[in-house]
Amino acid sequence: MLNFDSQKDGQVAFITWETASEINNDYFKGQRAMDGENYYNIGIVQGAGNSSINNSYDFVDKNPFVGVNYYRLKQVDF
Prior knowledge:
Elements lengths: L2 E7 L2 E8 L2 E12 L6 E12 L3 E7 L8 E8 L1
Antiparallel strand pairs: 1-2, 2-5, 3-4, 3-6
């Protein structure tokens, strides 16, 4: 993982990340929490499988909580 970022724009949040390489990466689960502890799945983004190049990803959270939102990724292998 080279970077991971989230930016709120109006009523949505844009989540972006970049990987340097991937091995057996099936998909990423985007997760959100209000308290930084209890995360819930909010979407799935397909991974590159096996890759030795940089890959950029993005996801839009169309329903962020009012106030602070915590985001994380869960990477799932084949």
